[in-house]
Write a structure and sequence with these properties.
The protein is mostly helical. It is built from 22 helices and four strands. It has two domains: 382 residues, MFS general substrate transporter like domains (Growth Hormone, Chain: A, Up-down Bundle), CATH 1.20.1250.20; 117 residues, no CATH class. The two termini are 47 Å apart.
């Protein structure tokens, strides 16, 4: 089993996987404008393809949650990776806008959502204290994608044709499958059992006899193995054979019993040829080493059972009755919709503020430092103990509401870019923390359930998004009132998070009792050694 809070390599692999899988999401503003140009669409119809993609991105969490009851989360992630690159490659041969909606929106969007859920759940299993930081590194992949893909796709679109651009993007996306495979959950059987067995066998050097000895189960092991024939142990002290002495015979039985327990757990059918023969009546430290070896095997078994239990998502009915669960769900709904709206309108809104087409395409890139700061450094402050995670999320809701409201009063592109960069700091932190607070309150496996519930609310909103964008942009002439509406919702959510934190503080003593480390009763694991015969 991997140690908690030490699998940082997996965090960076997750970052690379998300950087590839979120290429279309981070470039939604580019595709929004490009689809309008290629198919001569207005703003309402032009946002339809990206809205379908975003809706499937959120709604596919339902598929991932349902499949998790039949398949492992790593297998589900591989399925999603195949859907991504197959959907992108199919865009090259899409004959019309209808097929483009299916390949770009449905196939690729479904794969992106499934990969996002799988990678997040897999990564969170390896972290506890630094869970927010690790999740922030995973979401840094979205920021890197915003840095890389908008200028890359703009260059490919200018150099090659519209369809050739999808062919090249699909080739890049083929690298996603091996990255997701590298994040697969570890083997549930501990890899160090053979090392522990060898460590036990080195307690003392010994010889083997020629006669046979029936194995006893002094440690309470499997009695079905007690009739196996193994080399007879011989113990000597002062030149006298003590195989009939009670203490020596008991310790020999313990040694062989542990050997059989270890071999049975590793799947071998026979004990090693060299079995321990204790050269003298064992001291207490030898007994302790024998006991510790058995305890390590029992601990490994309990860890495996805990992992298997954790791998199954909790029943949704137990979560739906918790008020805190709905606070996190509606908070995630607001963050996801704000992310889609902000990313999808940033290019068009920059053009409204006097930016050139190149400056508008680069507007997404200019927000990347802010995204990285908000998604990694702010969550690290919470992990380091400078702020509570729920409190940090509530503060980010409030500050994002203030900064996005300022976008409506800006008159120049430079002021717009500055406010957008500030807003992305807090929205980036919320993107990370929306899953972390759920895992802190309900467990890691509840993340997929909350993600699926969030999708039930986000998908209808995204399907209505073309009408919403068309209403504000085509009928009212700008996105300012849209930004004001989103800001008011974020302010309301910040109040809900602060109230939740106050409620949690009142029950702090109970929470400490529930999260206290409980050590097993060591007396129950002690071995009693018979006294020597007088």
């Amino acid at each position: 089993m991997p140690d908690l809070d030490k699998s940082w390599g997996r965090a960076f692999v997750a970052c690379a996987a998300i950087a590839i899988s979120s290429a279309s999401q981070s470039s939604s503003g580019f595709f929004y404008v490009t689809f309008m140009r290629e198919y001569s669409l207005n703003h309402e119809k032009g946002s339809w393809l990206t809205s379908v993609f975003q809706a499937m991105l959120e709604g596919s969490a339902l598929f991932a949650f349902a499949l998790q009851k039949k398949f492992s989360i790593s297998t589900i992630g591989l399925i999603g990776s195949v859907l991504i690159w197959s959907g992108i490659l199919a865009c090259h041969w899409a004959p019309n806008i209808t097929w483009m909606t299916f390949t770009f929106g449905f196939l690729q969007g479904s794969g992106s959502g499934i990969v996002a859920v799988a990678v997040t759940v897999l990564l969170m299993r390896y972290f506890d204290k630094y869970r927010a930081t690790a999740t922030g590194i995973r979401y840094a992949g979205n920021s890197l994608s915003s840095l890389i893909y908008p200028p890359l796709l703009s260059h490919l679109y200018a150099t090659f044709s519209f369809r050739q651009m999808f062919l090249l993007l699909g080739g890049i996306s083929l690298n996603l499958t091996p990255l997701v495979y590298a994040l697969r959950q570890p083997n549930l059987r501990p890899k160090s059992l053979s090392e522990k067995k060898n460590e036990f066998l080195n307690i003392s050097k010994y010889r083997t006899g020629t006669s046979a000895y029936k194995v006893g189960s002094a440690l309470g092991g499997n009695r079905n193995n007690s009739d196996r024939q193994v080399p007879k142990p011989v113990a000597e002290k002062n030149g006298r054979t003590l195989e009939k002495r009670g203490s020596a015979e008991r310790i020999s039985s313990i040694a062989i019993s542990v050997c059989h327990t270890t071999v049975a757990s590793t799947g071998f059918k026979q004990c090693p040829q060299s079995v321990a023969v204790i050269s003298k009546v064992p001291d207490q430290h030898i007994i302790n080493q024998v006991r510790n070896t058995a305890d390590v095997n029992a601990k490994s078994k309990s860890e495996n059972e805990a992992w298997d239990k954790e791998a199954n998502p909790p029943p949704l009915s137990t979560l739906l009755v918790r008020p805190a669960y709905w606070v996190f769900v509606f908070g995630a709904v607001l963050v996801n919709y704000s992310d889609h709206v902000f990313m999808g309108t940033i290019v068009d809104s920059a053009l409204d503020h006097g930016a050139t087409p190149f400056e508008a395409d680069m507007a997404t890139v200019c927000t990347v430092p802010s995204q990285l700061f908000g998604r990694t450094l702010l969550p690290f402050l919470a992990d380091a103990g400078f702020a509570n995670r729920t409190t940090l999320a509530g503060a980010c809701y409030l500050l994002f509401a203030a900064t996005i409201a300022l976008l409506g009063v800006t008159r120049t592109f430079s002021a717009y870019a500055l406010c957008a960069a500030a807003a992305w700091i807090f929205l980036g932190c919320l993107t990370t923390m929306k899953h972390v607070v759920t895992a802190d309150h309900f467990g890691v496996e509840a993340v997929s359930a909350a993600w699926a519930t969030t999708g039930l609310f986000v998908v209808p909103m995204l399907f209505c998004n073309p009408a919403i964008l068309g209403f504000f942009r085509d009928k009212q002439g700008s996105y300012n009132n849209l930004y004001y509406s989103v800001a008011s919702l974020h302010f309301t959510m910040s109040v809900a998070f602060f109230l939740l934190r106050c409620s949690t503080l009142k029950r702090q003593k109970i929470w400490k009792i529930e999260h206290q480390d409980r050590t097993p009763n060591s007396k129950s694991n002690e071995l009693s050694v018979p006294a020597k015969n007088p």
